[in-house]
Write a sequence for this structure.
């Protein structure tokens, strides 16, 4: 039976979710809506074109719905959904038409990573769960061949990823193969499926080796000479995708760059004051190195996982009913250890829409067995509660009142990462970072995000290093940023390990515009809160504002501050 035509923007949006789930089964697994689906997406150029055609049809359908009932524009929920859907789909279509899917190589979000990650999201409680996983695992070789075909099609058009990205991913795939990863994944499977699971895992691991060999031996030599910097035109396109705003107009990128530099200097002054409390007479970097060696630390991978779990559980208990109203399903969040071969940064995976799989935070151990806590406390407020988990799980909780699209696929990085950075600041405002070491970790996290704005825009647009720059880049004032200068500057202004900083730099170069979404998003959240406070005066209720803000679902930077100000 043919489904009735959508009559509202929310219905158009959710019809898109169903249609994209047909084309990209990873979407449905993330949402938890099709647990028996054992397919993988078509990663070939034909698969990408099918998804682009769906974008075009959905935009046409949205135009039809709004033309047939102009009054829908007066409904705030429908209005927000329509604006979000149009902005997100046109941004995605712009990237497709520029051929970016034909050179998608990065150390974090490329198709080769997404296909591996989906297996960590699949249920494994029953024999049937394992059977579904095994059937999907058997499809990995085909999916990885499609990915290589897309890269080859891009190469034929002269579209290449930079060698730095290629070599980094080759190194990651080498690490996956030391396990090998997929063989380890199925080791806990039931005996009655042992033969099928082992055969599928062996084929999947062999496909990983084929992708590695293709990237190393065929693609990398042809990509030589491709610059790390993507230039203004490509950067504007990517920045819109991550931020939900065209930052290329009215010198928006230059304004963000200057503001990021001012934030760097403001935070540095505060760091210098706090470093004196941690280690009298020290610089911020010296104080952070001292904390690495002498501050509180957890020994062992499982003990640190348990510590992070306790931290989130305690935050839920402390915040619920006081600063948030946390629904029972949202209270559950799991601390996990990231599989080897991941990027160095911690990350979060959202719950399914029905909460059958909880939200999870993931800690990459990078082969370490000792974990200083000074820089983990604020980070887990960011990844867990009240950061990513509280926002994205709350979106799942209210998805029936909005739309699945507004609370999942329509997520804008600047909204989500901005909230998570706002959450860190909120915990500082509420006194949860009273320990000088933990607060220096919070400032280090803030500084890292300010530096990201500077070097991400600076490297890709090759902007001049500011005239008041100090340290390793002082002799290069007025000259364009390069990856080497950015790495030196980053190393002087971030207390994380060198391996982490190296991974981050590759990430910024491979995901242009994503790194700026944290601070720009936080700026919008803070400005929206300040405007709401000013408008309501003594009647402003922070808990009520938080819950109303989280009930809006996703918004891009073009709308976020204005919508928050009205709550």
């Amino acid at each position: 039976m043919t489904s009735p035509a959508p009559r509202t923007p929310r219905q158009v949006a959710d019809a898109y979710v169903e249609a994209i789930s047909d084309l990209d089964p990873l979407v449905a697994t993330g949402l938890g809506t099709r647990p028996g689906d054992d397919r993988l997406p078509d990663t070939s150029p034909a698969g990408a074109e099918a998804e682009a055609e769906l974008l075009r049809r959905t935009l046409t359908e949205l135009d039809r719905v709004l033309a047939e009932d102009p009054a829908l524009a007066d409904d705030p929920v429908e209005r927000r959904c329509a604006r979000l859907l149009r902005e997100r789909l046109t941004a995605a279509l712009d990237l497709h038409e520029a051929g970016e899917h034909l050179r998608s190589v990065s150390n974090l979000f490329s198709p080769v990573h997404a296909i591996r990650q989906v297996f960590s999201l699949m249920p494994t409680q029953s024999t049937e769960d394992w059977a579904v996983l095994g059937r999907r695992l058997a499809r990995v070789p085909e999916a990885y061949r499609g990915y290589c075909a897309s890269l080859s099609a891009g190469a034929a058009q002269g579209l290449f990823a930079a060698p730095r990205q290629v070599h980094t991913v080759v190194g990651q795939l080498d690490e996956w193969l030391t396990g090998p990863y997929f063989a380890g994944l199925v080791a806990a499977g039931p005996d009655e499926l042992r033969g099928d699971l082992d055969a599928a895992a062996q084929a999947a691991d062999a496909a990983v080796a084929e992708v590695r060999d293709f990237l190393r031996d065929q693609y990398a030599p042809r990509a030589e000479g491709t610059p790390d910097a993507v230039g203004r035109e490509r950067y504007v396109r990517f920045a819109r995708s991550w931020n939900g705003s065209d930052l290329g107009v009215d010198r928006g990128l230059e304004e963000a760059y200057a503001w990021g530099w001012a934030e760097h200097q403001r935070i540095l002054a505060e760091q210098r004051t706090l470093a004196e409390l941690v280690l009298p007479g020290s610089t911020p970097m010296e104080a952070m190195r001292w904390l690495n060696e002498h501050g509180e630390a957890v020994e062992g991978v499982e003990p640190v996982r348990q510590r992070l779990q306790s931290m989130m559980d305690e935050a839920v208990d402390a915040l619920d009913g006081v600063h948030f109203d946390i629904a029972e399903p949202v209270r559950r969040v799991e601390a996990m250890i990231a599989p080897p071969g991941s990027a160095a940064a911690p990350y979060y995976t959202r719950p399914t829409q029905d909460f059958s799989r909880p939200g999870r935070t993931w800690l990459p151990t990078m082969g370490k067995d000792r974990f200083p806590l000074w820089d983990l406390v604020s980070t887990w407020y960011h990844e867990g509660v009240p950061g990513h988990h509280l926002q994205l799980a709350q979106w799942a909780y209210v998805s029936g009142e909005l739309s699945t699209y507004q609370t999942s696929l329509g997520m804008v990085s600047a909204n989500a990462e901005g909230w998570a950075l706002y959450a860190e600041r909120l915990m500082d405002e509420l006194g949860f970072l009273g320990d000088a070491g933990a607060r220096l970790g919070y400032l280090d996290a803030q500084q890292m995000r300010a530096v990201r704005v500077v070097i991400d825009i600076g490297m890709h647009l090759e902007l001049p290093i500011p005239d008041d720059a100090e340290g390793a880049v002082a002799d290069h004032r007025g000259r364009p940023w390069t990856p080497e200068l950015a790495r030196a500057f980053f190393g002087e202004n971030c207390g994380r390990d060198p391996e982490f900083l190296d991974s981050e730099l590759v990430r910024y170069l491979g995901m242009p515009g994503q790194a700026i979404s944290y601070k720009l998003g936080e700026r919008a959240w803070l400005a929206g809160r300040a405007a709401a406070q000013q408008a309501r005066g003594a009647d402003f209720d922070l808990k009520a504002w938080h819950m109303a803000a989280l009930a809006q679902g996703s918004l891009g930077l073009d709308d976020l501050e204005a919508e928050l100000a009205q709550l």
Notes: The first helix runs from residue 9 to 23. The mean pLDDT is 97. Residues 242-510 form one domain.
